[in-house]
Amino acid sequence: MSKEKAPRRPRAETPKGFRDYFGAEVTERKAMLDAIAKVYQLHGFEALETSAVETVEALGKFLPDVDRPNEGVFAWQEDEKDWLALRYDLTAPLARVAAQYRNDLPTPYRRYAMGPVWRNEKPGPGRFRQFYQCDADTVGAPSVAADAEICAMLANALEAVGIERGDYVVRVSNRKILDGLMESVGLLDLNDPSYNAAERGIAMRAIDKFDRLGESGVEKLLMDGREDASGDFTQGAGLNYLQALSVTTFLMQRLPTNAETISGLRSLLAQSVRGLEGVQELETIAALLDAQGFGPDRIVIDPSVVRGLGYYTGPVFEAELTFEILDDKGNKRQFGSVAGGGRYDDLVKRFTGQAVPATGVSIGVDRLLAALRAKGRAEAPAPGPVVVTVMDRDRMADYFAMAADLRNAGIRAEVYLGNPKQFGNQLKYADKRASPVAVIQGTDEASRGVVVLKDLILGARIAQSATLEEWKDRPAQVEIPRSDLVAAVRQMLEG
Amino acid sequence: MSKEKAPRRPRAETPKGFRDYFGAEVTERKAMLDAIAKVYQLHGFEALETSAVETVEALGKFLPDVDRPNEGVFAWQEDEKDWLALRYDLTAPLARVAAQYRNDLPTPYRRYAMGPVWRNEKPGPGRFRQFYQCDADTVGAPSVAADAEICAMLANALEAVGIERGDYVVRVSNRKILDGLMESVGLLDLNDPSYNAAERGIAMRAIDKFDRLGESGVEKLLMDGREDASGDFTQGAGLNYLQALSVTTFLMQRLPTNAETISGLRSLLAQSVRGLEGVQELETIAALLDAQGFGPDRIVIDPSVVRGLGYYTGPVFEAELTFEILDDKGNKRQFGSVAGGGRYDDLVKRFTGQAVPATGVSIGVDRLLAALRAKGRAEAPAPGPVVVTVMDRDRMADYFAMAADLRNAGIRAEVYLGNPKQFGNQLKYADKRASPVAVIQGTDEASRGVVVLKDLILGARIAQSATLEEWKDRPAQVEIPRSDLVAAVRQMLEG
């Protein structure tokens, strides 16, 4: 299509960073989310679906600048009025709902939400500007029993979608023990947030890189600094060796039993009231989970979990898939994180002035779906339909009746509705539709009251096979009485 | 909350015209859409989920004006680049997909799509700016067999969600017979679209009001004009009496059998080639449907169907629910239309320059859901959870274990996670959650290895009942061994 000829034709393209989902891509995700929703429901969580559009004011975080407040969000101004924006997650709308309906909702309010969110970010490979989130939160429950419940429910949800026990672990830590750690190495004064703030930031970022840099790398960053492979130098947090050592020791305190981990943490944080409070919470969580049968093979206390430090105020958790997959370069690596969450106690306060305790988890829908596919656990796509071919244009009613008979027996079926002139095109169509069986009835067959069934799956196998020998007992094409259509197709499908 | 004290607190409100959906509102709709999707799949239709955001250019219809192209849509400009907008229906994105992937998709391409769409319109009572659509379309099938298939599938879908046979009818007409009618009364010259265009517009609008104004009202509008109850005068189309009569006769040609209707239309449109072509198409559709067992009790030829005249090019259809409901004023009226569609052959052409035949249907999700609720056919909301109350804060682990036992038996259950101090609040909570059973275990019960079950449904009935006599044999509260928890709760639920 040349530009000169048709300069005004619109481009048939999604906007950059957006994509379409076809067939099994839609139904696999849906089946996974349905299974998760069922688990959430069983735990007493209620569905909530907020609108995609919120006022920028209610979304918060992204405040309007002079002209356009669309840093990170898709936003627009109503004629001379409010700025509106697409939600960027499901938590900000929940906070708005919890404030708006605070007199009507039960307290605590357990809710789950599933749906797309939008980010106005630079798209990259595999990074889209619209994607699904799947959240469960409990609003209004101050007790860490609510956090324990979320962790247990997350484990149940992972198993419900097909991640086997042993293939995942939910790691739990607590923002308060990190605070305690910072206190004990002199990087935090709870009465003066600005004290050593820069050094604390460096230390926190170093801790966050523990997975990647390991013990010695993190120690360098905690002390004088570190030169990376490219020669770039990162300034350190200025701790001495013993202080740095206590940090890395802390990070490695995931011991064989939760009791040992808790005991170790209690020693390390003995001098921090905040830290010990966090350890106590973790101990309570571990006890509650233990009583429900969730041992450390499924949910484990692990102080190396570091999530959204500015956001969470208590327990934090992360679900990790522990089986290995091959990365782009063919190297084995652990699949990694598929969900995370924690306690955040300040979101509703923005609206009402009253602190409302809340905790929740967000499952990375695309990541988890990729894991299910990697394990062959994604819902099998619907089989292609039986295609009733059209040999005789005047007998469409007969073909439709055949398709209807098949459907009434629960078999997916359709009549070919393209141009029927070239029969080859009909078989190509059936191939594109991954059709298992083609039904054929020309004038001759009709006069004899029969139809021909073509086993397309067998046909494809024969085409791929080096030898026809193994197939010779099973004909790829059979003629049967019209009255046997449903039974014969079913037999072929079960073949 | 006074404005002086907290002037910068955001309002906890959805933007005007948007709303939130809670619990059963979400799950009822989902169950309905799931049932429809199953029918569509069975007919060989594939799921498609396009992004919510499209370029304004691809959406078409709403072309950018100088400043903001957001007439009717929510639109915004990417930094100095494309204008983007939220989709306003599911057909425009389908046309874009059909063009973008034309070399990869099967031809014909049968797809269904379900999801929210957005309209930047003035909100009103019950009119929202975000709402669900549920579409099925066949792209690339020129034959009216595709239209017949859509009609049959629509009937199947309505029955699948719980609309009984006899409570709905799919009415089918054809844009071409309306053209033929206009030709035969001298209001259309197929070679000169501008000929009598104004009068034709008046006549078409009059026809569209046939339901409401009846025969004599429409005749007036077709002739000299009509004064309404308020005294306003609407100019007529200038037909003479015989011409007007032929129009109203046409509109009333829905006769007891499709054969009679077709024969009647054929007489009325004898002088219009276009009209007769339309009648022929209707006859084919009726024959195809008849062969699949869809008689006029379910799908009927009805020339009074008038839909989106600028858009459709061939068969048009509308599903109507025929049972009566009470309107706001307490008057009985038919429930009315819940779905509509037809053939549109020009949408893909915008992108590629090549005409691509297409036909499809859109179900009004909110309307159909309202109908199911009116008939008591909406999916029953999930029962409220069994609430395990907290009598002893130190024994949370025991309470969690009880809830886990119940869930493992498939019973929805949760532990009360609010402040447990006041037991009355826990029962109020259970009431708000529509909980059927409260589980109670204080220190004394724990020491004896028992739990108390409170039948909250029975309790509510007793509270409403004038006499306690009828309940006396059924205690609203029982003490049972802890080991019998699951069995006893189940028995109470089955009550």
UniProtKB/TrEMBL annotation, chains A, B:
Molecular function via GO: ATP binding; histidine-tRNA ligase activity
Record: residues binding L-histidine: D89, L90, T91, R119, Q133, D137, R307, Y311, Y312
Subcellular location(s) of the protein: Cytoplasm
Keyword Aminoacyl-tRNA synthetase (UniProt): yes
Keyword terms of this UniProt record: Aminoacyl-tRNA synthetase, ATP-binding, Cytoplasm, Ligase, Nucleotide-binding, Protein biosynthesis
EC number: 6.1.1.21
Isomerase in keyword set: no
InterPro entries membership: aa-tRNA-synth_II, aa-tRNA-synth_II/BPL/LPL, Anticodon-bd, Anticodon-bd_dom_sf, His-tRNA-ligase, HisRS-like_core, HisRS/HisZ, HisRS_anticodon
Reactions it catalyzes: tRNA(His) + L-histidine + ATP = L-histidyl-tRNA(His) + AMP + diphosphate + H(+)
Domain Aminoacyl-transfer RNA synthetases class-II family profile: 1-381
Any GO CC annotation of this UniProt entry: cytoplasm
GO biological process, one term: histidyl-tRNA aminoacylation
CDD domains the record matches: HisRS-like_core, HisRS_anticodon
Domain of life: Bacteria
Homology family: Belongs to the class-II aminoacyl-tRNA synthetase family.
PANTHER family: HISTIDINE--TRNA LIGASE, HISTIDYL-TRNA SYNTHETASE
Subunit text: Homodimer.
Protein name (Swiss-Prot/TrEMBL): Histidine--tRNA ligase
